[in-house]
Write a sequence for this structure.
């Protein structure tokens, strides 16, 4: 599975037992073997303090955006959204700052603002560690009109903490501003994200943009010659033809009878992993309503190895969100109005956020490494004569499903998606 994305993140707790553990009991992640083991323990703990809050934000955001776009593909990166708004809170004052941090699911009586910013700083560092076998690049930027010059202290601090870029743009010339912003983002993403913004309002006061680029290779790849066209049942009236990848192997598996749904977990090389969640027919709404960190914890603690003949779509999609309304519903309001206090950015009042752009792209294919281990399908052939009673379970993702991509080293939720129609580009 090769993936290209844009925007956000999510983590798990400071407690001895993390509230959303992503590894099953038989393969607990050993921090002594992690690519991040060279980091100081204090840095790791600072990062992990954010986990339960980021998890709550991620799943709440999913539920809100799902209500806005029912029966449509959804794909977003919660870490990118949390990251850029935590950065914005660094330049906010009074109730504007409080609303942002509480909207990101932080309890300010339990965690000091300084701890939040330090946690995000270490999180970004851990996720982009050069020793990682998974390529992940998180970037955020603020585009400001030329009359609003950021304070040097603010600029220095956010660059150090959040790796944030700030650029001056002439919003009074929308065509020129769009070209400047889109060219900049296209360069930063190596051409993966194009046309980030369009139809800019000449009255724009500030524009935030955040993206995450992720590319992972399956630990055990799908073989292209096994991919074949099969049916995907979008709903009771709509069926589409899609290329369906296939492999037979031993996978982490769990069937949740309470929702009900089937969970299959696959690994990438490195520390990234994906939960593929297939609800029973007619039970997608049950899954949407119950999806939270406690549910994922239950799944991860009950995974067991099972031989599965897995069919999974090969597809690509993109999504472009203006998430201001969604964030409003989560309590982040003043920063978008004339009541905004962002004087920590420029030193003067009168600045507000006019738009938040969140663009994502996802590509899923068979790609893997040449050194991947032999699949169970080949072993099954070898032993067919000895164990004639053995048959792998067939699981086919041929109807709407949920996918959750995590980084096990930090217990971070990198991406959340609901795939309703893999042929449709949202």
């Amino acid at each position: 599975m090769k993936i290209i994305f844009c925007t956000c993140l999510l983590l798990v707790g400071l407690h001895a037992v993390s509230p959303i553990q992503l590894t099953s009991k038989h393969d607990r992640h050993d921090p002594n073997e992690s690519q991040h083991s060279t980091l100081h323990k204090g840095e790791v703990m600072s990062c992990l303090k954010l986990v339960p809050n980021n998890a709550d934000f991620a799943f709440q955001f999913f539920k809100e955006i799902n209500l806005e776009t029912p029966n449509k593909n959804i794909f977003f990166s919660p870490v990118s959204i949390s990251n850029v708004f935590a950065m914005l809170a660094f330049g906010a004052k009074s109730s504007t700052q409080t609303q942002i941090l509480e909207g990101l699911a932080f309890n300010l009586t339990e965690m000091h603002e300084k701890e939040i910013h330090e946690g995000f700083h270490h999180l970004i560092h851990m996720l982009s560690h050069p020793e990682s076998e998974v390529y992940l690049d998180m970037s955020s930027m603020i585009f400001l009109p030329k009359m609003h010059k950021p304070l040097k202290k603010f600029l220095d601090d956010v660059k150090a903490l959040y790796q944030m870029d700030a650029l001056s743009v002439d919003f009074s010339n929308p065509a020129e501003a769009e070209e400047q912003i889109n060219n900049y983002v296209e360069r930063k993403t190596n051409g993966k994200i194009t046309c980030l913004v369009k139809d800019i309002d000449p009255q724009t006061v500030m524009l935030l943009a955040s993206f995450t680029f992720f590319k992972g290779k399956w630990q055990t790849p799908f073989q292209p010659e096994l991919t074949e066209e099969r049916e995907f049942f979008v709903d009771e009236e709509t069926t589409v033809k899609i290329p369906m990848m296939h492999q037979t192997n031993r996978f982490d598996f769990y069937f949740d009878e309470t929702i009900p749904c089937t969970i299959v977990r696959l690994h990438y090389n490195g520390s990234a992993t994906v939960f593929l969640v297939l609800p029973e027919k007619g039970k997608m709404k049950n899954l949407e309503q119950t999806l939270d960190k406690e549910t994922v914890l239950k799944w991860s603690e009950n995974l067991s190895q099972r031989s599965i003949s897995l069919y999974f779509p090969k597809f690509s999609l993109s999504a472009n969100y203006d998430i201001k309304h969604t964030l409003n519903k989560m309590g982040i309001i003043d920063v978008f109005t004339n009541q905004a206090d962002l004087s920590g950015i420029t030193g003067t009042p009168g600045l507000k956020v006019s738009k938040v752009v969140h663009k994502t792209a996802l590509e899923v294919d068979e790609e893997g490494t040449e050194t991947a281990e032999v699949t169970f399908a080949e072993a099954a052939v070898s032993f067919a004569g000895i164990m004639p009673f053995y048959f792998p379970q067939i699981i086919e993702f041929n109807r709407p499903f949920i996918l959750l991509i995590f980084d096990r080293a930090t217990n971070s939720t990198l991406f959340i998606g609901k795939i309703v129609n893999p042929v449709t580009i949202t």
Observations:
- The longest strand covers residues 239-256.
- The chain has twelve helices and 14 strands.
